[in-house]
Design goal:
This protein is an alpha+beta fold. The protein has two domains: about 1-300, Aminopeptidase; about 325-410, Pdz3 Domain (Roll), CATH 2.30.42.10. It has helices at about 1-15, 30-40, 50-70, 140-160, 180-185, 225-230, 250-255, 285-300, 350-355, 375-380, and strands at about 70, 80-85, 90-100, 110-115, 165-170, 195-200, 210-215, 235-240, 260-265, 325, 330, 340-345, 360-365, 370, 390-395, 400-405, 410. Strands 1, 2, 3, 4, 5, 6, 7, 8 and 9 form a nine-stranded mixed β-sheet that branches. Strands 11, 12, 13, 14, 15 and 16 form a six-stranded antiparallel β-sheet that branches. Strand 13 and strand 14 (about 370) form a beta hairpin.
Length: about 400
């Protein structure tokens, strides 16, 4: 009953984003584009670990935070939280970029974390969907777009009347190597996680289907659905992605019992390729998703109390990229099916194409492993090796179809 009364109170009293004040610098297409173009410029070297390019990206983000008037929340009074990233291709000195925007009041759950990762694949030595191609992987969508949205929200809220809760802005490093930056922050937080209301994650938000957004983690708090409905004033079509933890930074916080939502655009064939460039970003769509995320934060801030955390039951840790390097070559459709892992297409020449998988199929079993979401699919591939012949069961037009694929080798 208390939960129903709380939501009813919000519905009556909160005018969504208007609650964060007026005279706010708008979230603009020009600024979003400028951030993406800087971060995805070839001079950033694909923001790979150990490059001068990722260092310049971190300095750029810290400078933006400083210009907006945010407080440094890293080590030694800086914006940087250093850590060692131990990866399959070596160990690297990495750093998260962390800033605070103090709130006006202290109340239960008085922090909200906003995050996005700023690293990418460098020259494709690891994680590329074009194995063996040595070229800058710009990562415009993944994840210059998320950082652009994060910076615009930082500027937006810095220019508004203070929220009740303190906002924590974090640009994570080493996400592409297993969520290492967010895991380090969750283990060494700049603020108490037990006093954190929620975490909002922006990852690959730059190429949405027009008028749509996909959200993961919505089941980690019982109130999220109602709060999102209040925030969605532009009437975006909301697609709910399968699973509450998966291969993005929100998972590091869900596993610490912090409700977390991952905002996502759409899958496409340029992901993790040299062709993920700034000119392909859907900037109006990015602006819409960033605006929705900002309104969601404003609505969350009005909650008189804490969220009701719902612990994920499907797994004890996020399934990230890795395993034995088996590759299938599908393009996921994260909101396309109530059962299995739906796909929106297959990559040309891939094992999936050769096996006969089609757009609209939903993979429900691979090699004897049941598949309910992208995490299950990674686990199934991780249990297989390149060159293995595996049976793949798909739902196609509501019928089960069994196909056979010879798995390829990923560069992961």
């Amino acid at each position: 009953m208390m939960r129903i009364l709380t939501i009813a109170f919000i519905l009556v009293t909160v005018p969504a984003i208007a609650a964060v004040g007026t005279a706010v610098p708008p979230i603009t297409l020009d600024e979003l584009e400028a951030h993406v173009e800087y971060l995805a410029d070839p001079a950033r070297e694909g923001r790979g670990l150990g490059t001068a390019g990722i260092d310049s990206a971190a300095a750029y983000i810290a400078h933006q935070f400083e210009q907006f008037g945010l407080q440094p929340a890293g080590q030694g009074g800086t914006f940087f939280q250093p850590f060692e990233a131990r990866t399959k291709i070596g160990n690297f000195a990495a750093r998260n970029v962390v800033a605070l925007l103090p709130g006006a009041e202290t109340q239960p759950g008085h922090y909200i974390i906003l995050g996005a990762h700023y690293d990418h694949l460098g020259y494709g030595e690891y994680g590329s969907n074009d194995p063996g191609v040595h070229a800058v992987h710009p990562g415009a969508d993944d994840n210059a777009s998320g950082i652009a949205g994060l910076l615009e929200m930082a500027e937006y809220f810095a220019g508004a009347d203070p929220l009740h809760r303190t906002l924590v802005f974090v640009a994570f490093s080493a996400e592409e190597h297993g969520l290492l930056g967010s895991a380090y922050f969750a283990d060494h937080p700049a603020i108490p996680l037990d006093k954190t209301l929620a975490m909002i994650n922006l990852d690959a938000v730059g190429r949405p289907t027009p008028g749509e957004v996909t959200l993961f983690g919505m089941k980690t708090a019982a109130e999220f659905d109602s709060l999102l409905a209040i925030s969605n004033t532009e009437g975006l079509k909301i697609k709910i992605g399968h699973g509450n933890v998966g291969p993005s930074d929100h998972s590091s916080f869900v596993l610490k019992n912090v409700p977390a939502v991952h905002f996502f655009g759409a899958a496409h064939t340029d992901i993790h390729r040299p062709t993920d460039t700034a000119d392909k970003i859907n900037y109006p769509g990015l602006e819409q998703i960033t605006g929705l995320a900002a309104r969601f934060v404003g609505t969350l801030d009005q909650l008189p109390g804490s969220l009701t955390f719902e612990k994920p039951a499907e797994r004890t840790r996020p399934r990230t990229h890795g395993g034995k390097g088996a590759h299938l070559g599908i393009i996921p459709d994260f909101g396309g099916s109530d059962r299995g892992m739906a796909i929106s297409g297959v990559r040309e020449g891939s094992p999936a194409e050769k096996a006969g998988l089609q757009a609209g199929d939903a993979i429900v079993n691979l090699g004897g492993v049941d598949v309910n979401d992208i995490g299950d699919l990674f686990a199934a591939l991780g249990a297989s090796s390149p060159g293995d012949t595996v049976a793949i069961e798909v739902l196609r037009d509501s019928k089960r179809v069994t196909l056979e694929a010879i798995l390829g080798k990923s560069s992961r």
